[in-house]
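Input.
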Amino acid sequence: MPKNIKVILYDESEKNNNIVSKFLNLKGPKLFSFKNEDELTARINILKNQYTSKEVIVLNPFKGRFFQICPGSPNVICCNYRVINTCFNCFYDCTYCFLNTYLNSFGVFQFTNLEDLHKEIDLFINGVSPDLVYRIGSGEFTDSLMMDEITGIGESLIEKFSTYKNIMLELKTKSGNVDHLLGIKDKGSTVLAWSLNTERNIAKYEGGSASLKKRIDAAKKACEAGFFLAFHFDPIIIYDGWEEDYTTVISNLFSNINADKVVWISLGCFRYAPGFKNIMQEKFPEEELTLEEMFPGVDGKYRYLKNKRINIYKTIKGYLNTYTKKPFIYLCMETGNVWHSVFNNYYESSESLEKDFSKYLKNTFLK
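Output.
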């Protein structure tokens, strides 16, 4: 059981729900039931004075859309990734995480009505085009694997998608929590993915997450078990010596895994929306992320200067390519002209990137 969990809140009417019963069987956490939203709010207000948000699990149905296309950012090229909502918030305390903008949110909300998720997935599957490879993941509003050994959501999704040749499920994490998945026989085209950063950045800005070594060790286990792999260098955070440190990360990674199993790698520089700087500085007064010179881009988010970003991407892409040219390397939320400067390939729209990405995966990994 994740050591973070100190309290579990659950709807009294859902005691027999599959997800709820798994949490209620855990040894250690304090259990509190509620009958309605008012009782839940009252209980949370009490717990706020005793626990941190990361220590409280709230088990509740989700009333929004379980399945959607990644919202991306306006006026930039996105990859049209599909997002599954299974949980909101996570155990890790990353300085740069956009979830910090939800100032009034308290607790990690694990959704309990996952049968509704499967209904939405079925509707999506019925309408997919056989010409596209769809990438789908649950790591947008939470960490896909931080407590997956409890929920069993990962295995259920792997089973759900394993029979579809043009769907690649991605479970993305900053943990080393993969052992419970390694014995799954029918993995389909499942991708286990890690967000990677330098040891310095993990220590300073990714509180509570697994060390770089634990992430790479877990990736090695997943690779040996037969899973596809993916890696996300996002956000890339620069400082004196960043080039050497990122090349060390890449060297350690490919010394431990089979590069032929890596299907994609994303690159994205640190960026933040207007107003987020104040939130970071208030919650993390020692942060140094915003000391770099940054300017608003076409989507309004603050970024490193364009030429600096291009140099960063070229540097990391170049070092990746010394180990492998097989994965599809892509930029997250960048403009078409930055794409062209880095790859000499211009995308006019997110749809054109999605088609190119899909074609590459189909021809390289799913033949």
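The chain is about 35% helix and 20% strand.
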